[in-house]
C-alpha cells in the first residue's frame, strides 16, 4: 500500500521534534539556561507551590501566552518545560509550513529545502532548543501574513478577521508587535485598492480612477474603513481589557510591560545593552541605518522572496512593512538591542513568499538552483549571526552547542539555591525575585521564601525582617542587578540602624549574593 506524502511529512515532523528535544535536553544537562526560561520556571513554581494570593502571578506574568505554554508542560519537569514547549512548537511550525508547500507547490524539492532549514539552521535550532518563546512569535506572525496574502488573492474579509485574531495573539506573545499596526495604517489603502474590481493594474492609476469617480470613491472609503475596523478593533479592545486588568490587580496600566516582577526582559535587555557598551572589547551597537542591512545579511532569502513578488506592488509593500517595523523598534528602544526573533521573522516570511509565488515561475531549474544556493548561504549567516550576537544568552547558546562543554552561567544561582535547599524545613528566607528569580527557579521548596507576590507579608518583612524570616538574601555591589532591588548592600546597615537589638550574620556568600542569618533578637 502506497503511503501518502502527508504521512511521510508527519513522521518526519515527529523525528524533528525528537531531534529538538534531544538537543534541548542535552544542553539543559550541560547547564544552559536563559533568563526568559528561568523566569517562566520561577513563576510556574510560585503558581503551583507558592502560598498566598497567586492570581496576580498567573494573570499578569508577561508575555502571557509564552508563560502559559511553559505552564502546560511543567507537570512533566518544571526545568525542562520551556524546552519541551519550544521543541514541540517549532516542530509543529515546520509541519504547518511544509503542508503549505505540499498543497500549493507540489514539488518535493521545496519540502527538502524546508526540512534542511529546520534541521540545520542554527537560528531555528536556537528557537527550538533554547526554551525561549520565539517559536510562538514566528508562528503567529507567519499566520498573520499568510491570511493577508490569502485576502489579496480571494478578496474575502474572513481572512482579514483571522489575520486580526493572529495579530492579537502575536501581541500577547510580544507586546512590541503592537507597533506593527502603525505601518499597516497606510498599507490598508493599498490593500483596499487591490481588492477593487478595476481593469487597471498599477496602484497609482487605480487610486486616480477611484478618486475621480464618486461611486468608486465612496466604495473605496467604505471598504478601507471596514478593513480598519476588522483588522484593528480586536487588538485595541484586547489591549484595553488587559490594561484594565493590570490596573485592577496591580494599580498600574503598564505593569505587565514595565515591572521586573511581571516580565523578564525589563532588566535583562538593559543589562545586555550596558554590558556590551561598557565592555573592554567594545562592540559597535546597532545603527539605525544598518538594521535593514543586518536583516538582509542575516536573511538573504527575503530578497529571493521579494523578487518572486515583484509583479505585485501591494504584496511587496506588505513585506517592506517588516523592514520599517524593525527600524522603528531600533529608534524607539534605542537603549536596547533587537533580539534574534526580530531577524528570524524575515526567514519565515520569505518562505511564505515562496509558497505563494514559486509555482508561477516558468524557469523551474534556475529557481531551484538559486534557492539551493541561498539556503546554503542562509545556514552560514545564521551561524555567524548567533556567534557575533550582542546578546549574552544568544552567544552562550551557540558556544555551548558548538563545544558541548558544561555551561557555568547559572552556577552561582545553583550554588545559592543548593544552600537554601539544605536549610531545615520551616526556615524562611526573604528574597526579591525581581532580580533573584534564577535562584528561586532552582529552589526545591518556594514555601520557604518570602517573595513580592505575597505583597503584605513581603512589605512587612522588608521593614521588620526579624519578625518574619530567618535569612535575608542580599545582592552585593558586584551583582549587575544590585541597583534594581531594595535588598542590596545598603539594606543591612539601614535595618541595623533602625533596630540595633537584632544581629545579622553572613551565612553564605558568593560574588553576587550574600545570605544573612538573623542570629539574635534582644
From TrEMBL:
Keywords assigned: Membrane, Transmembrane, Transmembrane helix
Superkingdom: Bacteria
Transmembrane segments: 7-27, 71-97, 109-127, 133-149, 156-172, 178-199, 220-245, 287-309, 316-333, 339-358, 365-386
Any coiled-coil regions, as ranges: none
Name of the protein in question: Glycosyltransferase RgtA/B/C/D-like domain-containing protein
Amino acid at each position: 500500500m502506497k503511503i501518502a506524502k502527508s504521512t511521510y511529512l508527519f513522521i518526519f515532523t515527529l523525528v524533528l521534534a525528537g531531534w529538538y528535544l534531544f538537543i534541548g535536553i542535552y544542553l539543559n544537562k550541560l547547564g544552559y539556561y536563559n533568563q526568559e526560561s528561568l523566569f517562566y520556571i520561577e513563576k510556574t513554581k510560585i503558581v503551583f507551590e507558592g502560598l498566598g494570593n497567586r492570581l496576580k502571578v498567573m494573570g499578569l506574568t508577561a508575555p502571557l501566552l509564552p508563560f502559559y505554554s511553559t505552564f502546560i508542560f511543567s507537570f512533566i519537569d518544571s526545568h525542562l518545560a520551556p524546552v519541551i514547549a519550544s521543541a514541540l512548537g517549532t516542530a509543529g511550525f515546520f509541519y504547518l509550513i511544509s503542508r503549505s508547500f505540499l498543497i500549493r507547490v507540489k514539488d518535493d524539492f521545496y519540502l527538502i529545502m524546508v526540512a534542511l532549514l529546520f534541521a540545520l539552521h542554527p537560528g531555528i535550532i536556537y528557537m527550538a532548543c533554547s526554551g525561549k518563546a520565539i517559536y510562538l512569535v514566528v508562528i503567529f506572525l507567519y499566520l498573520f501574513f499568510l491570511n493577508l496574502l490569502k485576502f489579496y488573492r480571494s478578496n474575502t474579509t474572513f481572512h482579514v478577521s483571522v489575520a486580526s485574531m493572529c495579530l492579537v495573539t502575536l501581541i500577547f506573545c510580544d507586546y512590541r508587535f503592537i507597533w506593527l499596526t502603525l505601518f499597516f495604517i497606510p498599507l490598508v489603502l493599498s490593500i483596499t485598492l487591490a481588492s477593487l474590481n478595476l481593469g487597471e493594474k498599477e496602484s497609482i492609476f487605480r487610486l486616480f480612477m477611484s478618486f475621480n469617480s464618486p461611486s468608486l470613491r465612496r466604495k473605496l472609503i467604505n471598504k478601507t474603513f471596514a478593513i480598519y475596523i476588522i483588522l484593528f478593533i480586536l487588538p485595541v479592545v484586547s489591549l484595553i481589557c488587559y490594561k484594565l486588568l493590570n490596573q485592577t490587580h496591580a494599580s498600574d496600566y503598564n505593569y505587565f510591560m514595565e515591572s521586573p516582577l511581571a516580565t523578564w526582559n525589563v532588566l535583562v535587555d538593559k543589562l545586555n545593552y550596558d554590558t556590551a557598551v561598557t565592555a573592554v572589547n567594545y562592540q559597535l551597537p546597532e545603527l539605525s541605518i544598518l538594521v535593514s542591512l543586518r536583516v538582509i545579511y542575516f536573511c538573504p532569502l527575503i530578497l529571493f522572496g521579494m523578487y518572486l513578488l515583484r509583479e505585485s506592488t501591494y504584496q511587496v509593500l506588505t513585506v517592506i512593512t517588516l523592514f520599517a517595523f524593525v527600524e522603528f523598534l531600533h529608534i524607539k528602544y534605542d537603549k536596547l538591542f533587537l533580539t534574534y526573533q526580530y531577524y528570524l521573522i524575515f526567514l519565515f516570511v520569505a518562505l511564505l513568499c515562496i509558497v505563494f509565488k514559486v509555482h508561477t515561475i516558468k524557469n523551474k531549474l534556475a529557481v531551484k538552483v538559486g534557492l539551493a544556493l541561498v539556503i546554503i548561504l542562509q545556514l552560514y549567516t545564521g551561524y555567524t549571526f548567533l556567534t557575533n550576537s550582542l546578546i549574552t544568552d544568544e552567544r552562550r547558546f551557540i558556544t555551548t552547542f558548538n563545544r558541548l562543554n558544561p555551561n557555568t552561567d547559572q552556577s552561582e544561582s545553583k550554588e545559592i539555591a543548593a544552600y537554601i535547599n539544605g536549610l531545615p524545613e520551616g526556615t524562611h528566607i526573604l528574597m526579591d525575585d525581581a532580580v533573584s528569580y534564577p535562584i528561586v527557579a532552582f529552589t526545591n521548596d518556594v514555601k520557604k521564601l518570602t517573595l513580592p507576590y505575597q505583597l503584605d507579608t513581603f512589605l512587612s518583612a522588608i521593614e521588620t525582617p526579624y519578625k518574619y524570616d530567618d535569612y535575608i538574601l542580599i545582592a552585593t555591589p558586584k551583582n549587575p542587578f544590585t541597583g534594581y532591588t531594595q535588598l542590596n548592600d545598603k539594606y543591612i546597615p539601614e535595618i541595623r540602624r533602625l533596630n540595633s537589638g537584632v544581629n545579622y550574620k553572613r551565612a553564605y556568600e558568593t560574588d553576587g549574593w550574600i545570605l544573612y542569618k538573623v542570629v539574635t533578637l534582644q
